[in-house]
Design goal:
Elements (H helix, E strand, L loop, with lengths): L1 H20 L7 E5 L6 H17 L3 E5 L6 H8 L7 E6 H10 L9 E17 L7 H10 L4 E5 L5 H13 L3 E5 L3 H9 L5 E5 H4 L6 E6 L15 H5 L7 E9 L2 H4 L1 H15 L2 H10 L5 E4 L1 H18 L5
Parallel strand pairs: 1-2, 1-3, 5-6, 5-7
Antiparallel strand pairs: 3-9, 4-7, 4-8, 4-9, 4-10
Helix pairs in contact: 2-11, 2-12, 4-13
C-alpha cells in the first residue's frame, strides 16, 4: 500500500512539474528585426521589450535579419514553429506593399498580429533652408516648374513612393519620385540638398530636425505638433488624400492562433500590458516616442490591412 501511495504521489509530482515546465513562455522569445540595428524598428522594439520581458518573465532576444525588403526576416520567422516564441516587427503598410508588389511572398493568410506599438504618420519634408516654407509654397512652385521637382522616397515599392505619387497626381505638380534604398538614405539626400523634398515618417525623420522639417501630413487628423506644426494634405489642398501612416506592429505566424491559442492569447494580453507599463513609458519619453504610442488590438491591425488594400486598389496604377 505504501508503495502504491508513493507511486501515486510521484505521478502527481511529475504531472505538476510537466505542467509547470510547459507554461508559456518557458524560454526566451526571439524578436526579429528585418533591418539593421539602430533603426526605428530596433529602437521602438527595445522600448517595448523593457516592459514585456518583465511581464513574460523571460528575456526577449533580438535577431537582426535585414535584406530583401524584409523578406529575409519573414522567411526566418516562417521557418520557426507556430508556438509564439518568434515575433517580428515591421510596419503593416510596408508589409502590405511588399505583398501587393510581389516583393514579399508571405501574405496576410500566413502573417497575423500580436498588436501595434506606435503609429508614425507619413509627412512631406523639405530642407530648413528651402524657399518652400509651407505646403502651398511647394505646390505653387511645382505647378510653375519647367524642370520637375524631386521627391525622395525610401524604395521604389515603398509606401513613401506610393504617397509621393498620389501627392503628385492629386496636386498636378511637375515633380518626380527619386527612390533610394532605405528611409535614412532618402532623408540624407534631402538633408544634403540633393532633392527638393522627401516623403517619410514623422517620428523617424525627427532625428534630422536640424536640417529638415515637415510641411504636411498624409493623415486624417492633425499630427502631434510638438516638433512640427503642420496641416493635413486634405485640409491644405481641399482634396481627399488617403491616410498613409506607418503602424509599427509586432507580427507572428497566423497559424499560431489555431495551433497554440493559449500561447497566442498570452502574447496578446502581455503585449498590451507592457505598453502601459512604467518602464515602457519612461523609455518612450527618453526616445521621443511617447506621442506616437498607439496600441491597436490584432483585430484593429487586420482592419487597417483592409483599409490599406482599398487605397492600393484605387492608386496601384501609379506604381506600374
Amino acid at each position: 500500500m505504501k508503495k502504491i501511495t508513493a507511486v501515486f504521489i510521484m505521478a502527481i509530482v511529475l504531472i505538476s512539474f510537466s505542467a509547470f515546465a510547459a507554461e508559456f513562455p518557458s524560454k526566451p522569445v526571439t524578436h526579429i528585426i528585418p533591418a539593421k540595428a539602430g533603426g526605428g524598428f530596433d529602437r521602438s522594439s527595445r522600448v517595448l521589450s523593457l516592459g514585456w520581458q518583465e511581464i513574460l518573465r523571460q528575456p526577449v532576444k533580438f535577431d537582426y535579419s535585414p535584406g530583401a525588403s524584409g523578406a529575409i526576416g519573414f522567411g526566418k520567422m516562417m521557418s520557426k514553429p507556430a508556438d509564439g516564441y518568434t515575433t517580428i516587427m515591421t510596419t503593416i503598410a510596408m508589409h502590405a506593399m511588399g505583398v501587393n508588389t510581389g516583393a514579399q511572398k508571405f501574405g496576410w493568410d500566413e502573417i497575423g498580429f500580436v498588436g501595434n506599438l506606435i503609429t508614425d504618420p507619413n509627412v512631406l519634408l523639405v530642407h530648413n533652408d528651402s524657399p518652400y516654407k509651407t505646403i502651398q509654397d511647394f505646390i505653387e512652385a511645382g505647378k510653375k516648374a519647367e524642370k520637375p521637382l524631386t521627391i525622395s522616397t525610401s524604395h521604389p515599392k515603398a509606401v513613401s513612393s506610393l504617397a509621393a505619387k498620389i501627392f503628385i497626381e492629386l496636386t498636378g505638380i511637375n515633380a518626380k519620385v527619386v527612390a533610394f534604398s532605405g528611409g535614412s538614405a532618402a532623408r540624407n539626400a534631402l538633408a544634403g540638398k540633393q532633392v527638393d523634398a522627401c516623403v517619410g515618417p514623422y517620428f523617424s525623420s525627427s532625428s534630422q530636425k536640424d536640417f529638415i522639417h515637415a510641411v504636411a501630413s498624409f493623415t486624417k487628423k492633425k499630427v502631434w505638433d510638438g516638433l512640427w506644426d503642420v496641416p493635413t494634405l486634405t485640409e491644405a489642398t481641399g482634396k481627399e488624400f488617403p491616410v498613409l501612416v506607418e503602424p509599427f506592429a509586432f507580427m507572428i505566424r497566423r497559424d499560431t492562433i489555431k495551433k497554440n491559442p493559449e500561447n497566442y492569447e498570452k502574447m496578446v494580453a502581455t503585449f498590451k500590458e507592457a505598453i502601459t507599463s512604467e518602464k515602457v513609458k519612461v523609455a518612450a519619453e527618453k526616445q521621443g516616442m511617447a506621442p506616437f504610442i498607439d496600441y491597436w488590438s490584432p483585430q484593429e491591425c487586420d482592419q487597417y490591412v483592409q483599409d490599406f488594400q482599398a487605397v492600393w486598389a484605387k492608386y496601384k496604377h501609379l506604381m506600374d
